[in-house]
Design brief:
The complex is a heterodimer. Chain A has no helices and twelve strands. By secondary structure, chain A is mainly β. Chain B has no helices and eleven strands. In chain B, the strands form two sheets. In chain B, strands 2, 4, 5, 6, 9, 10 and 11 form a seven-stranded mixed sheet that branches. In chain B, a hairpin with a 5-residue loop joins strand 5 and strand 6. Chain B starts with a strand and ends with a strand. The relative contact order of chain B is 0.34. Classes of the chains: A mainly beta, B mainly beta. At the A-B interface, strand 5, strand 6 and strand 11 of A face strand 5 and strand 10 of B.
């Protein structure tokens, strides 16, 4: 079975500063990787995904992530955050041949003015 | 594109009653839909996977007779919480996956409060 670890439960960051959210996974088979964002009292919105190809993936709202197979990581980055980026961010993994999406524990990003 | 809706957005009910939550894919056909439960400040836990026209597959520890799932069409799945109790209070989120796609698209969630 696959698992996902988000190393930081909370990340405070100042507006216009860069942010990196760490995600590590474990799986014995090929996986697809996803980052979702959840604003308060809302569902999840897909930020970006890695299925194959280039290991640097660009998503919406200026976010990008890099798939590193040797380190089994898929860290999310944004070079300059806005107040509106305050939200919960979830990393998720799915076996390439499976149905189930496994989520990490989430990282709460608080952008301060 | 890829919009998923849920209805209702929030519901308050008395203990012992049943509550039905609808999940619809608005602009695509979803052969597979998923139901998740999320407790405050926690991650999403998959409850069950439903495929159109067949019985849902429940995760370990989820009572199939308590959480009835119906996926009667390619755009609609329903979750019925039967004989709801206060411990069933939670945020329920559905997702839908297009036929040949790998990505799940999530609904806005339904907050259930059982008194």
């Amino acid at each position: 079975a696959q698992s996902v670890t988000q190393l930081d439960s909370q990340v405070p960051v100042f507006e216009e500063a860069p942010v990196e959210l760490r995600c590590n996974y474990s799986s014995s088979v090929s996986v697809y990787l996803f980052w979702y964002v959840q604003y308060p009292n809302q569902g999840l919105q897909l930020l970006l995904k890695y299925l194959s190809g280039s290991t640097l993936v660009k998503g919406i709202n200026g976010f990008e992530a890099e798939f590193n197979k040797s380190q089994t990581s898929f860290h999310l980055r944004k070079p300059s955050v806005h107040i509106s980026d305050t939200a919960e961010y979830f990393c998720a993994v799915k076996r390439a041949a499976g149905n189930k999406l496994t989520f990490g524990g989430g990282t709460r990003v608080l952008v301060k003015p | 594109g890829a919009v998923v809706s849920q209805h209702p957005s929030r519901v308050i009910c008395k203990s012992g009653t049943s509550v039905k939550i609808e999940c619809r894919s608005l602009d695509f056909q979803a052969t597979t839909m998923f139901w998740y439960r999320q407790f405050p400040k926690q991650s999403l836990m998959l409850m069950a996977t439903s495929n159109e026209g067949s019985k849902a597959t429940y995760e370990q520890g989820v009572e199939k007779d308590k959480f009835l799932i119906n996926h009667a069409s390619l755009t609609l799945s329903t979750l019925t919480v039967t004989s709801a109790h206060p411990e069933d209070s939670s945020f329920y989120i559905c997702s839908a996956r297009p036929g040949l796609g790998e990505t799940q698209y999530f609904g806005p969630g339904t907050r259930l409060l059982v008194l």
